[in-house]
Please model this.
Amino acid sequence: MLKLLRQSPLSARIGMGIVLLNILTAIFAPIIAPYGETKVVGDVWELFNSQFFFGTDHLGRDLFSRMVFGARNTIALAFATTALSFSFGIVLGFFAATLGGWTDQILSRIIDIIMAFPTLIFALMILSVVGSSVYSLVFTIAVLDSTRVYRLSRAVAMDIEVMEFVEAARLRGEGVWWLMRHEILPNAMPPLVAEFGLRFCFVFLFIAALSFLGLGLQPPAADWGGMVRENAGAITFGIYTPLLPAAAIAFLTVGVNLIVDWFLRVASGLKD
Amino acid sequence: MTKLLEIKDLYIEGWSEERWQTIVNGVSLELNRGEVLGLIGESGAGKSTIGLAAMGYTRNGCRLASGSIKLEGQELFGASSQFLRSIRGTQIAYVAQSAAASFNPAHRVIKQYTEAPVLKGLMSQKEAERKAVEIYERLFLPTPEKIGWRYPHELSGGQLQRAMVAMSMSCQPDIIVFDEPTTALDVTTQIEVLASIKEITEKMNKAALYITHDLAVVAQVSHRIMVLRYGDTVEAGETRELLKEPKEQYTRDLLSVRSLREEKVETEKDKIILEIKDVDATYTGREKVLQDINVNVRRGRTVALVGESGSGKSTLAKVITGLLPAVRGSITFLGQELHPELRKRSKEDLRKLQMIYQMPDTALNPRHRIRTVLGRPLQFYFGMNGKEAEDKIKELLDKIELAPDKYIDRFSTELSGGEKQRVCIARALAAEPELIICDEVTSALDQLVAEGILALLQDLQNELQVSYLFITHDLATVKAISDKIVIMLNGRIVEQGGKQEILTPPHHEYTDKLLASVPEMDPDWLDHLLAERASTFI
Amino acid sequence: MKHVLWLVLKRALASVVTILVISLIIFIGVELLPGDVAETVLGQSATPETVKAFRKELKLDLPPHVRYFTWLKDFVQGDFGNSLANGRPVFGLITWRFANTLFLAATAAAIAVPLAVILGILAALYRNSLFDNAISTTTLSFISFPEFFIAYILIGVFSVQFNVFPSLAAISPRMNFGEKLYTILLPALTLTAIVTAHMMRQTRAAIINVLASAYIEMAELKGIRRLRIIVQHAFPNALSPVINVIAVNLAYLVVGVVIVEVVFVYPGLGQLLVDSVSKRDIPVVQASGLIFAATYVTLNLLADILSMLSNPRLRKTH
Model:
């Protein structure tokens, strides 16, 4: 593992650096941030200065502090959602692949229908009905996103399923859980790990988009998508405040993508 | 006079493990007009790489390192791609192993024939089509005047392979490179393609490089043979001479007739452990893939189940193991009727019936260490753990002739093909079975490795009195190890009986065709066979 | 040809069923509104009269299955009900905006499709070259960027710094075609950037996949020119996957338009949907959601049918 890290190309190292920086910021947010998350400390849309590194927002709150707290809220929310989506997707996908028959048919048809519905529209409609709260947000996105995890893990599991070592275990008399846990899962790890990175990016951008539309985390909590929305008006005055949280979102997704890209290349290279 | 093809001190390198490694190690060969040179070797010998290099071509990740390749005096090494294009197809043509993958699915078969000659201005489209039909006829393709207008996926494997042989002739090249052209085919189909190849090399007097791993096949078509191993030349010589008096031990090993063991004649005293009675099976619910199957296996004996692809022999294994429940009939194992479905069978029944697979690569979980592979059945069936299990695992590794301390903590991916297959055997033995189903266990292995596996299975049977149901398409293997032979065709049993009884005439008509199609080392075998068939059919 | 037709028919039928199920989900979703819909939606201003009028508007006084079929029948006939926010017929609200959305998406597609396909083919042909690496890195970045980030960068550069294009895409029916194009150029470019990135990467992958086939090697060994190999041997086989890539991305485009419309305050269906969601204007949400879904399903259906028809393996001699 260490050897692999040492051989990693520059792009992957940059990616890892970015991700690490974001995680540390999220963890130590209260220590790093000079001001409170919601505290009004200056004038509206002050420019960068020694007191406020990134200036202030539309209410006169310190933008840097809000970005630091925003990292915490935004990343934690996206991570929790992705984790939940993966738990749903993998368990159902593996079940469908190992049990086959009716279980597979019914699950796959339901998933097909959910996937035939554009995710953003579906999410908007659900949130319009149940209202937006942290829980409804996480749950809705996790359920919608798990359909893609389901497709992938089912396909990967199917590929492994037809291999003879799985048949051998089945002939030995092993149960479904052993097959999933010991025969299929270890072999499905590389594509699933890469998919976790990609799904995280997607969920992260998706939550940012919803927040931007005003349906994500509700103010005054700081989150990057919402901050872009709050400060959007500034851009027409030539003030680039809204670009900062938007850039932060782009920065983290680029970082994760760089790692995933490298990982996929390594994983496909090992197969040959 | 210049040689038709002259390769001198050719080194070819391949990119693997982050560096260039030699895969062909200073090979030299020459080829005269009208001559067929057989390149023979096991996997990794570099024979295909040499064949492609003769056309000035290397696959992705390979490069010509040094040496010289002269085609009618013209140097191909380092030649411009424009020049290489001009000789490919017209002076030297290629026939690949898999016709199904090598024909473009988007175009009709005849269009792929006419493409090169028309593009190179050798003949008009009409003329080329006429020529194609002519050669389809010479190569015994059915309805030659129509077959070319079909799409590749509408032809059978043997037909496509012959169409590709025909295609190689489209620009009347001087040399044809045959790269394992019959490896993917059944023996009876192989004969048809071999006959086509003979037609071209002998009657139309073309020179050829014939690449294969099968000495008996190459003996039929080539004038000279060159034996390769790990990118080195082992020896080369006239076909008859080399077969009669091989100089090198490696060649002798390849040639050695597989040890025929004495048939253990079945007697009533030997207990029947598996009795398959009137079994039918189906995948769809309508069409039956197996019908009226009746087979007995006795203790300590080997029953060989023989047939070509689609004969239902592997399906029968699925029925016995319960993966595909029989729709009719019964299977009695050790005196008790087995439930048709795998899930409803007892642990003891599962334990006593084990299976070994064709592909050792996919039969072992690449994420498990040997310790887990062998330890799990011990734990699962006998509740063995810790020291007790470890001792047993080591004992099993000893049995399959792998040093226990060296192998116990390895992953299966760190083993060679033959070693993996040995571990698969050990996994089956760990359950202390009464019957092992061996599904094509040697067909994915190189010849010498395969013989080692067969010998091991033989020793284990003598020691443990385990019975084998041996599924194979390879009649040489059948001759080597079986006590009883069951011949299958289209889901039915054609004929069964003791080995001697089946192998000596009179045979059933199909058995006859099957046995006659297996190439023998005798270089005249194919000629005799074709002459014989011609006389009976006319 | 007969069995291909049958496949197409089966696929089309599945889409119709999908749309029906989606309509049912949308309908049930509204049914599941917690508490009494009327009181929740009307909130503090609920008086017995308004609640009654509201219930009648949503036909809540009838049994669910009757309501569903009436709703569906009305919908098919173009009667989408009335908006709760302003009482106007939803149909009138939606048609103009839907046309605007399609116009924006079509403009973006007209730029993105040729650009993506050409770049994808070039990147595949010159694999691992400087050009390929540069393109790969750029597209990877665009995929990682949120839509609004690209949008605000474009606004910052083109309307704030240079003041050449408007930052608000305030399109109106009185404008002529040229004026309309000028107004929507920035949102169209934003969409183009994102869609091109996805489409180009998938096109590249599809072509590389085809180029690795044994029949391409065979063509090379027959001494055929590189250009002809690409046009005659690779292209017919790459057509099916590439067409699929294009259509799937167009489907994505129609939906991805939502955010871009909000950024540029473009009077499209996406903007309307988002507004109605915050206002909980349920008839409008239902109608625009269903229209989006139907468009998406139709484009995906088109993708599948086209790639089925262009798959050479389904061809028959007779």
